[in-house]
Structure formats: C-alpha cells, structure tokens
Amino acid sequence: MKKQKLIHLEPYIHIFLWCMVLFYPYIKYMGKENGYAMSFGHELNSLFFKITISYLLYFWFFPLKNKLKYLPLVFGIFSINILTYYYTDNLFHPGHDEYWTHFTSSALTYTAFGIVFYVIYALKKEYYSELKINQLEKEKRISEINALKANINPHFLFNTLNMIYANAIKKDEKTADLILKLSDNFRYLFHEGQHQFVPIYKDIEHLKSYIALQKERLTKKVFVNFEENIDTNSQQISPLLLISFVENAFKYTSILKGENYTINITIRLKNNELYFYCENPYALKASENIDTNWKESGIGISSTKARLNILYPKGHSLSIIEKNSLFMVTLNISL
Predict the structure, then answer these.
(1) Global confidence as pTM
(2) Based on the domain organization, do 104 and 164 belong to the same domain?
C-alpha cells in the first residue's frame, strides 16, 4: 500500500526534487549579506543539464536488459553533456572554473542524481512486479474455475460416470480404481491447484490420472503413447499449465470417426529445463461441428498462453503447429 501511494505521488516527488535543486542555493544563502551571487538564469541552465541526464537514465538506460552493452554510449553522452554545460555555464561567469575541475564536479553530481533516480526506478519496478503477481493470481483463479468447468461439463463428467456405472454393473474390478482416479482429479483441482507452485511430479500425476480416465472412456478409439523422463521430482512448476494441451488433444481426437488414433505425449526435465510435447490427430471439418460449449470449456490454450507470459515471460517458448492432419504442441520452460 505504501509503494502504491509512492507511485501515485511520483509526479509530485519529481516536482519537489527539482524545485529543491533550483532554489537550494537561494535558501542556503538566505539572510546572508548580498545573498546568492548567481543569477536565476544560471540556475535554470544548470537545472536543464541535470534534468537531461537524470531522465535519460530513468526512462532509457535503467529499463535496458543489457546495460553493460550501452555503458560506452552513456559515458559518451555524459561527456557531451558536461562539455556543453561547461561552455553554457561560462556565459554566466567566464573563466570561473578550470575544465577538469568542472568535469569532475559535474560527473559526481550526475552520478548522485543517477543514484537517486535509480532508487525511484527500482521502487517503481518492484511495485509493478507485485502488480504482475496479483495479475497472475487473478489468472490462476480464472484458470482454476475454467478447469473445474472442464471436468464438470457433461462431455467429461457424465461420460466418465456412465462408464464407471457400466463397469459397476459388470462388477468390473477396475471400478474402484476409476472412482479413485476421478476423485484424485477433483482433489488436485481443489487443493494442489490452489498453490502458486507445486512439485512437478504432482502435476504429472494429475495428467496421468486424467489420461487414465480418458483412455478407459475412449477404449478402442485412442491409444496414448506417454513418455516421461524427470531428473528431479522436487522441481517446482505452476499447476495446471500442461493439462490444457492434453485436454485439447483428447477433445479433438474423440470427435474423429473410426478407431485406433494415437496421442503422443512427452515430458522431460533436465537441469531445470522442461520439455513438453503433445501430438494428436486433427481434422478441421470435424472440429467445425464440435459443440460450442464443449469447445470453450476447459482451461483453454489462450488462458495457458497468458499464464506462461506472466509466469515465465523470458523463460519459455511455445510452438503450436497444425500440419498433415496432426496438431502438435511443443513447450519449453526454464523452471
């Protein structure tokens, strides 16, 4: 809350700062004999060069990702600014200062102002980072609601319950296991899905549970080739990032005519680098006839893209390709 007030007061802070710089010499010599000797034009000239350097750093240099690359350019601009200031300052008191004395004094002054403005920039950046985290929490809550809708909609829940009911009538031994998997599916959404990050093995177990239910429901229609190679189970990941692609694969495969379709899913984790690949058969004509409510249900790829951009803005790459009747998703994340 304090940072928010600081951001809202920022324009006034800037105005106050420059007013203090401009009038400080007059305040310092107030009451003394003859007061401050320099003219107001002299102070305005000095202020102009301080403002130029300060806001060049504030708006251009500080936000740069690779600052070292631009340091020579900054030093060059500093030197030109100081040189120009030296000659304009001499208009008010010719030959008053030696150039190098003037250069050193100006360089130290600019450095001091640079530090002040970097503190303001850092506080402002931290505030907006917190806003991003809040936005992430909002996106996460929306994702959780959509995920819950995805699993409660008739296409998933009713068909799964009908399948379990049919197995129960036949006294199939798998019935209890299917009920447990459905229960685990919802438990993950209600509990683990509430956390910002979870161990990756938990998210993979949730995927496996979902896949097992879909395989049992679609039986002869779908074969799943699932490959997993994880070097550490404790690695943290935001929950419900991968499920949207798997859910999408089953959704669009289940509407195809015929049997024996293959869905390929690969998850690898090595040295904190996650590789995820999901491939499923796809037919545009079939997808055009899919029920609108079903098409829009689930977490959704667009929502997942938004979460990835917030969670891993510079640490992920996502490729989605539809080619040769296949829908292919490749996701790499630096966790």
Answers:
(1) 0.52
(2) no
